[in-house]
Each structure stands twice: as structure tokens, then as C-alpha cells.
Amino acid sequence: MIPRPDLTAIQKAAERIRPYIHRTPVCTSETLNGFCGGEVFLKCENFQKVGAFKARGATNAVFSLSDEEAAKGVLTHSSGNHAGALAWAAKTRGIKAEIVMPENAPTVKLNAVKGYGANVYLSKPTQAHREALAAEVAQKTGAKMVHPYNDHLVMAGQGTAALELLDQVADLDLVLAPVGGGGLMAGTALAVKGISEKIEVVGVEPLGSNFAWQSLQKGEIVPQKNPNTVADGLLTAPGNLTFPVLQEYVSHIVTVSDEEIISAMRIVWERMKIIIEPSSAVPVAGLLTKKVDLKGKRAGVIISGGNVDLASLPWN
After folding, report:
1. What gap in Å lies between CA 286 and CA 309, rounded to an integer?
2. Is 64 among the catalytic positions?
3. Which of 29, 43, 49, 54 is catalytic?
């Protein structure tokens, strides 16, 4: 089994994926700073390949495969961004991708996956059913499973966004990221703490899908059950690989309501002219609501993606 990534593993992942991904920009806004009471630096993974940070983890996983493994293709189950990322990474390497997606996945994400040439299988919108269908597909095809978040190679790839952020912006006090299954959050925490123990790592999660928050409170993983949030990329619970990292390295997790998420998303669209999806707005909402205290501090925020169905904007 591949061990938990440390800073060296994340640095190696950065080298491995560099030829294929974007080094995304960091954007700032005086208006946003004023609202939050400190300095905010947005690491804009909405400008990443496939429109989300997921390209990093998927690319690291796909290009870590041996030629023999790659020949059988790759497989995942995902509500959207990881599905698109793995389909794109597989196409980039010239191998097959088998993707299980819930039937209620956003149309924009479903179309993107199909556009990359992947074979798509629609499941019921529950984690249990999509995992069961993925197991069936794996048995039929022999494809290598690349889990959306509970995978050390994926975690290492996601951590490269924070690695870039800390190279681009000096003297950060905090780094924030949205939390769903914990792949981005775990990778971010491992990268940040590998560079500086002084930087606080904070997660922000939708109130209607706050399984990581519940899990940290209880001291064990609380499984996903009936998530209900506009942040469709954050509908899952932490995995057995991501959760211990959250326990060890994440200072705390705060939760925000859908109303707060939509408000934050709209502010970024209107004031910064940047298209972000609801999941990306979650950590911004944590700052705007002052649930994360930023007074006199500098915060880096991982903006996770920008894949929005323009026909179904949440404020309409």
C-alpha cells in the first residue's frame, strides 16, 4: 500500500504533474478584504484544467500507474469534478476511463465527462449505490480504481495546490479549504504543515453535509446520510485515509449555511468577476460570516473549482 503522503511525496507529485496542469493564479480583492477584516488570497483552481483542483490528484494517480496497470484503464465514482478530472487525465495518457456518476449530477459536469471520451454509468444518488455499481464495473473491466478522495496518490496531488500557494504568497497565517471527503483538505494540511507548523489549517463545510465536522466531534467517521446542500461537490463523508489527517493537522472545521454559501458565491462573481461554483464559495463564506476570525491576519483560500450550470444558478 502507498504510504500517507508527506511533504516529499507532495513535491514529487508536483514534479510528476507539472507538464500537464496549470500553475493557477492567486487573486485578491480590496473589497473582499474589507468584508473579511483581513487579507485574503484566493488560489484560483477554477482556472485549472477541467475547471477544478481535481485535475491534480487525478493526474498524479494516472501517471503513477505502471504501463501494465494503465493498459486496463481507470475507474471512479464521482458527483462531478473528479469524474471529469479522471476522464481528462486518462485521455491525456491515452487510456480508458470508466466513470460512475449519480443520476442527479450537474449536467455541465456530466457532459464534460462524456466529452473526454469516458464510459459513463449512472447510479442512484447515494454513496452506497454508486460504490456498489463501481465495484461491478471494476469486476467486468479490470480497471484500476482511483477513489475521488480516499487515495494517497490523489491526496498528494491535491496538496500541490497549497504547495504552489505558499510559494506564491509569503507570511500566511491561515490556509482554508472546503471539506467533503477530505482529499483536498488532507492534502492541503499535509503540504502546509510540512512547510510551516505555524500556519493554521482550517476547514469549512456546508451545514447540510457536515459529516467531517460531525466526525471530528465524535472522534470517529460519521457516514454520509441524506446530504442536502447547494455545494454539490461536498456531499460525502471523510474516508479512513483522509480522516486521520484531518484529526491530526486541521485546527478546526466550521460550518456555513446554503444561504451563506450562495451569498459568498455571488459576492465573488460580482466583485471579483470570477466564476466559482458553490463548493468553492464555502471557505469564502466562512470568512465573510466571521466564523473564521481574520482580523489583522492573512489567509490563503483554495478556490476548488468553477464548474457551474449556468442554466441553474443558485440565486435564481
Report:
1. 23
2. no
3. 54
